[in-house]
Amino acid sequence: MIFRPICAAALTFLLAGCAGHRVIRPGRGLVPRPTAAPFDPRVPDFAAKPYQPFSREDAVAIAMREWRLFGEPVDDDPPGLRPVPPPELKPEREPGLWQRVGEYWFIGQDPELREGAWTGMHDEYGNLFPADQDDRYAWSAAFISYVMRIDGAGARFPYSPNHAAYIDVAADMALGRTSGYVVTAERPSAYAPQLGDLICFARGRSAGLRFDDLPAPAFPAHCAIVVQVTPGQLAVIGGNVDDAVTLTHVPVTEQGTLAGPDGGVLDTRYPWMVVLRVLYDR
Fold it and tell me: For residue 16, is it within any domain?
């Protein structure tokens, strides 16, 4: 399987967001502004205070570091064509890597969420789950949350186990329905993604969703962070791609956009529907 970014369990699909200071859209009402994050002993001081400004350069470097940790895998194949390894050989379950996935959950999620205790192979009670059930513990949104948290986004990013949470907050930012977050939604045909931005598509039962449908009720999706911009192509890194942190190349127009003026997305593999422009401090 190529992308398994959102937990397939119905409970996760129904999860609208985080409790406490994290407000993830329960519907289409006004989204409150972020407030100061409470003390969380799981987040290191250098990220919580933070020591350095929330920066594009650091976000890319953090994503690249994690990619190197997983062995620098690259997957440019269409979904379903890449051979699937036996369950026992999945990278997310290898010694040293399942613990790293646990850190994405532990640091990337707010402390009241049960997902914060998951690993690449254990649930919140420490029970080993079968490798063929890992769709229920998909960690791609946890990876993005981890990168934003470690980079020092603080209370300004809507950390969640569900990509749709921050896609919808970004849409509300673009519509002027909330403020103070560091993500805002951009149309794929109108904005050229920059280093550190996120590109996203809806998947599974919601694959038909498009930019104009946002914000939408909780839906399965996948987002990846842009780590390289070259003429005609982006390189993006996503979590839980082939059960690893994996790099993918994405075609773009001469103007650097994912879609042409007619809205047609150049990438025939994935229906990228929105760019989340990240409002870095530097």
Answer: no
- pLDDT per position as a tens digit, 163-188: 999 999 999 999 999 999 999 999 99
The closest alpha carbon to 223, from 248, 205, 243, belongs to 248
pTM of structure: 0.89
Residue 80 lies in a domain: yes
Q: Which pLDDT value is given to residue 22? A: 41
In a domain, 64, yes or no: yes
C-alpha dihedral (22, 177, 27, 157), degrees to nearest 10: -30
Encode pLDDT of 109-141 as tens digits.
Answer: 998 999 999 999 999 999 999 999 999 999 999
The answer as to whether 210 is a domain residue is yes
What DSSP state is assigned to residue 30? Answer: P
- CA distance linking residue 204 with residue 8, whole number of Å: 9
Domain count, the chain: 1
Rg (CA), the chain: 17
Q: Which of 190, 169, 42 is nearest to 106 (CA)?
A: 42
Helical segments of 3-108, H only:
10-14, 45-48, 56-69, 97-108
Among 3, 281, 282, 5, which residue's Cα sits nearest to residue 143?
Answer: 5
Place of tokens 């994503």: 63
What was the pLDDT predicted at 29? 57
* Domain span including residue 264: 52-278
pLDDT for 33? 84
